[in-house]
């Protein structure tokens, strides 16, 4: 039976090089990510062992290192790559990534993208 359990990170702030303009490729800018993934937590709930779950501290560290270590032109690429990272590294069946740039457009608090991806069935 499929699980409806979701583990999440909210407002993971990361400085990275991102943007379509030349000046954006020379400075680090903040991006904020919300990440959710499906995972059956019942075994971890019974054992109380983090090894029976997906450690959100580990996920946050890997995502932070991945995003901070790359240069992106589009936010679309960044969120797609983060979703792919979770699907590959943690073998989750489903992930939702919300990414936003703060103050990227005058008089707009933030701009962003939300995607959902599922693991390919081979």
Rounded average pLDDT = 93
Major β-sheet annotation: 5 strands, mixed
Strand order, largest beta sheet: 3-1-2-4-5
Percent of residues in β-strands: 35-45%
Secondary-structure element pattern, one letter each? EEHHEHEE
Number of helices: 3
Between the first and last Cα atoms, what is the distance in angstroms? Answer: 19 Å
| Residue runs with pLDDT of under 50 for 5 or more positions | none
Coarse morphology: elongated
**Broad structural category:** alpha+beta
* Proportion of helical residues: 25-40%
Description:
It is a single chain. With 122 residues, the chain is α+β, with helices and mostly antiparallel strands. 28% of the residues lie in helices and 35% in strands. It is built from 3 helices and 5 strands; from the N terminus they run ββααβαββ. A hairpin with a 7-residue loop joins strand 4 (94-102) and strand 5 (110-118). Helix 2 (56-68) crosses helix 3. The protein starts with 5 loop residues before the first strand and ends with a strand. 16% of the residues are buried.
Jot down its keywords.
3 helices; 122 residues; single chain
Give the helix/strand layout:
Blueprint: E1 6-18, E2 29-38, H1 42-47, H2 56-68, E3 71-72, H3 75-89, E4 94-102, E5 110-118
Parallel strand pairs: 1-3
Antiparallel strand pairs: 1-2, 2-4, 4-5
Summarize the model shown.
With 122 residues, the chain is α+β, with helices and mostly antiparallel strands.
């Amino acid at each position: 039976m499929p699980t409806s359990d979701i583990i999440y990170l909210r407002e993971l702030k990361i400085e990275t090089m991102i943007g379509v303009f030349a000046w954006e490729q020379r400075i680090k800018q903040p991006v904020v990510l919300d990440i959710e993934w499906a995972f059956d937590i019942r075994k971890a709930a019974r054992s109380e062992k983090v090894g029976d779950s997906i450690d959100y501290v580990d996920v946050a560290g890997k995502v932070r290192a991945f995003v901070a270590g790359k240069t992106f032109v589009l936010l679309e690429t960044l969120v797609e790559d983060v979703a792919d990272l979770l699907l590959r590294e943690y073998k989750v069946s489903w992930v939702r990534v919300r990414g936003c740039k703060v103050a990227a457009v005058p008089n707009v608090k933030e701009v962003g993208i939300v995607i959902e991806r599922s693991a390919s069935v081979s």
